[in-house]
Write a structure and sequence with these properties.
This protein is an alpha/beta fold and about 170 residues long. It has a single domain, classed as Rossmann fold (3-Layer(aba) Sandwich). Helices cover about 45% and strands about 25% of the residues. The chain has a four-stranded parallel β-sheet. Strands 3-4 form a two-stranded antiparallel ribbon. A two-stranded antiparallel ribbon has the order 6-7. Helix 1 packs across helix 2. It is globular.
Length: about 170
Amino acid sequence: MATTIRKHTDDRDVELLDQLASARKALVDQIGHRIVGQHAVVDDLVAALLAGGHALLVGVPGLAKTLLVQTVAQALDLTFNRIQFTPDLMPSDITGTELMEEDHTTGRRFFKFAKGPVFANVVLADEINRAPAKTQAALLQVMQEQQVTLEGSTMSLPPPFMTLAT
């Protein structure tokens, strides 16, 4: 009896692996319509996505890194945000911040959380090396925990979540 259960499980596993391979090939082919001649980078990026990881894209300007990331997000119908890292970028600029708002009917003031650009499925952290250490640390924390904590309140990021940095 154990052999019968094992065989059924093995068959299902093989079927799921075949489906994954087929979906991976379809995704790589779709990306290949827009990104030409960068097969290794596309393969590595899709592998990182399927593994639930993040990736650092290194290359000279003009190699279509931003276009590649946008294409992956579009091919999978995922939300996409690009963050241009600069020396004056603060952690709250990427995670979000509390803004004071006023209810015009009652005049009552309250704080409302304004989500930052990390609240997307695919985040492009462009030129991450330019950002201050505190901002880089905030992004690394978001990447690890896949959530943002502010003022004791924790908000989860939308799954799947992937950060690609240049």
